Amino acid sequence: MEENRVYEQLAEHLNRLPAGFPRTPTGVEIRILKRLFTPEEARYACTLTLKPEPPEEIAKRLNLEPGKVAGILEEMAKKGLIFRIRKGSETRYMAAQFIIGIWEYHVNQLTPELIADLREYAPYFFQQAMNLRTPQLRVIPIPGSVTAVQSIMPYEEARRLVEENQPIVVAPCICRKEHGLTGEACDRPLESCLVFGLGAQYYMENGLGRQITVQEALKILEEAERDGRVLQPSNAQKITNICTCCGCCCQILKNLKKLDKPALYVVSRHIAELDEESCVLCGTCVDRCQMDAITLGDDHAVINRDRCIGCGLCVTTCPEEAITLKEKPKELQKDVPASLRETYARMFQERMSAMVGKA
């Protein structure tokens, strides 16, 4: 009973973090935690917040010897259960959210059982996430879909984001890794997620990815454009990652695709627009769209504006150049927070407001 109680406490603790960890009727979330955390690790994780702290401060709360606490925290960081930041000789530890965080940090430790549990849990997690105005990721246009004369914010320009955020690590996509282990892999590259800054440092230390140059990162963006992947960076002007996502594997895109109006739930300043007279009904755009936002009509393609997420994949391969990206009307745009701290603060406030509304 005592062991079960600590996992219940950890589930509640993770659910108080901005991204949440919603409870389920089946209790699959507890099963996931038991696969990942020992009871002792669960107790330690319950004491951490999103504020990075030295082991000495955490040891005070636990009323334990700092040396012992430091050793356990370091092992937990190595296992992908919490986040670690090193600056010079100082090391600080903080809580990791379940998604995006703990789950992604286990890309090298997936098992069929863990995958099955995650797939059972994912609809509950994303149902809660879709109710927030502020998501963790946003969508930016692939580089070739935006012309030099178009107005685009610096934090939406993929090449610029890569050039200005270093060090850079490339890591395996956990969604494609998951599908590969269950025999459902697509033909996109496995090594395709870009991680920057402190996140890159954590990934390198934990063996989750390898450091690459700016030119190598730009090549990954080019490959993503060619094989039809959506660029999803952190929903902040100062990014920590860029995911290159396919609609067949990405849990976020798969759950968005189930919605009637995916465009309402993403942060994206752009939408595809068709020149009907130039369209020759070749169907290339239909194949490229990850949201089923384009269909073929009698005389030309038809873009469903409620489904278009502004990724630009349909633009770059249209042989007649009949599709362009246009900026959405201001009233349909969502602003991008300056930092992840601001993103998480907004998410937390939105979740608290929703809980008060249900009370």
UniProtKB/TrEMBL annotation:
Which parts of the chain are coiled coil?
Answer: none
Alphabetized PROSITE patterns for the sequence: 4FE4S_FER_1, 4FE4S_FER_2
Name the UniProt key words of this record, in alphabetical order. Answer: 4Fe-4S, Iron, Iron-sulfur, Metal-binding
Q: Which GO terms describe its molecular function?
A: 4 iron, 4 sulfur cluster binding; metal ion binding
Q: Name one Pfam family in it.
A: Fer4_21
Residue ranges constituting the 4Fe-4S ferredoxin-type domain according to the UniProt record: 270-298, 299-328
What protein name does the entry list? Answer: 4Fe-4S dicluster domain-containing protein
- Which organism is this protein's natural source? Thermodesulforhabdus norvegica
Q: Please name the taxonomic classification of the source.
A: Bacteria, Pseudomonadati, Thermodesulfobacteriota, Syntrophobacteria, Syntrophobacterales
